[in-house]
Description:
Layout: E1 6-10, H1 14-25, E2 29-33, E3 49-50, H2 62-72, E4 78-80, H3 85-97, H4 101-115, H5 118-128, E5 135-136, E6 140-144, H6 153-161, E7 167-169, H7 171-177, E8 187-191, E9 195-197, H8 200-213, E10 217-219, E11 226-229, E12 232-235, E13 238-240, E14 242-245, H9 252-259, E15 266-276, E16 286-288, E17 293-297, E18 301-310, H10 319-332, E19 341-349, E20 356-359, E21 366-370, H11 376-391
Parallel strand pairs: 1-2, 1-14, 2-10, 4-18, 6-16, 14-21
Antiparallel strand pairs: 3-9, 5-9, 6-8, 7-8, 11-12, 12-13, 15-18, 15-19, 16-17, 17-18, 20-21
Helix pairs in contact: 1-8, 1-11, 5-11
The structure holds flavin-adenine dinucleotide.
Flavin-adenine dinucleotide binds at residues 10-16, 33-36, 41-43, 45-49, 51, 222-223, 246-248, 250, 270-272, 305-306, 345, 347-348, 370, 372-378.
Amino acid sequence: MSNVKNIALIGAGIVGLSTSYYLQSSGHKVTIFDQNDPGSGTSRGHANVIADYGVPALNQPDIWRNLLRYIFYSDSPLNISWSYLPKMLPWIVKFLKNCNSKSMNNTAEQMTSLLKDALPSYETLLTEIGATDLVTHKGVLYVWMNEKEKPTPDQIEVRKKNNVEQVSLSPAEILDLEPNLNKSIKGGWYFPRAHHTLNPDKILNKLFLKFLEKGGQFLKERVFSVNPSHGKFKINNRDFDCLVICSGAFSNDLVNQLENKRIPLETERGYHLEFLGMQDYLTRPTCLIESGIYLTPLEYGIRAAGTVELAGTKKKINESRLKYINYYAKQLIPKLQDYQNSWLGYRPTLPDCLPIISKSPKLENLFYGFGHNHLGWTLGPITGKVISGLVNGETSNNPAFSINKFL
Ligand SMILES: Cc1cc2nc3c(=O)[nH]c(=O)nc-3n(C[C@H](O)[C@H](O)[C@H](O)COP(=O)(O)OP(=O)(O)OC[C@H]3O[C@@H](n4cnc5c(N)ncnc54)[C@H](O)[C@@H]3O)c2cc1C
């Protein structure tokens, strides 16, 4: 390849590691900076769903109907910290402006343009790293016990419009598929095309080992500042031709330095509990809609993951969220026993619920890949492929995912 670049990439989550893979495959030399171990952030704790059915996003008109419940009741899938509310208000206002049918449909359409290539990009990557046994194809179930919580006609219609295969199931059909679920389930939908992964730590580790095998360098360092000069970047006293920021929910300080503006990036905190050794109780990821949590069978147990907490990145674990997940996990599968592990992670979210996958408008050789909210595990590989195309000059910014819309 004629134009080999010496690239710095900040952030070793699924987005950063996948992007490094595609950049290395194009012949570039990549150095990853991360203050923590590779793959030890949000990318290890999710519900493991490769959610190619993942529309609509959170920005739905329905949010208005439930707003008071989210603000005032802790027993709800979305929880707001009062002390963080003033700081978060500008983001909340922008987000609420997107909670209408037009924005919901636009987000769904743009997300679908990425989701349709998500699985093939995953399969390429998993084959390359020898991890095809760590993904399985069983579909995903959405179920409810409270009739009021079943999907709205709008939600069903958006999926239909975007070619999501969805099958309505009766309680008996659901229990045929998953006999250990609560017998009080009133109904559900099945997404037959969805896949799920069985051990994210193993996948992230294999990706990282492939990165090293291909000559990549990993520096366990936090990046506080980046000095661009004459088309180059100095990062922690080293020089690079090109910079890619994949720092998830923590990307804003670097964006601010480089673009002279903070963008409305916030975090939707989410939690998981793991019930070790109980994987035989369930075959496929199952979401109890009213709780906002998924139960997913992994290689080594069941992970109950989900909920949204708006409380920033600094507040410690909220024990009442763990109790909430534990309660609803046992509602869904009554024979679950005690959990062993708990975890908190930070979904990076912009108010239109679209990720930024973009070239900088200001600096040559500066690129961004962050803001994948609820779908980062699904969209990591396709994001890497798109960024590699941007770096190689093979594609140009898609306005829907461009950082320009916030500058
Ligand atoms: C409970 C829960 C369930 C979820 N379920 C799913 C699911 O089923 N399917 C799905 O597709 N998605 C899911 N997601 C979303 C998904 O997990 C995220 O979108 C995704 O992991 C984000 O990946 P990332 O690489 O952008 O960020 P991260 O994994 O957070 O990686 C960013 C990295 O950047 C590093 N970093 C940040 N700043 C700096 C700096 N200044 N210097 C050096 N390093 C830095 C961090 O240490 C971190 O390692 C879920 C999320 C949660 C919380």
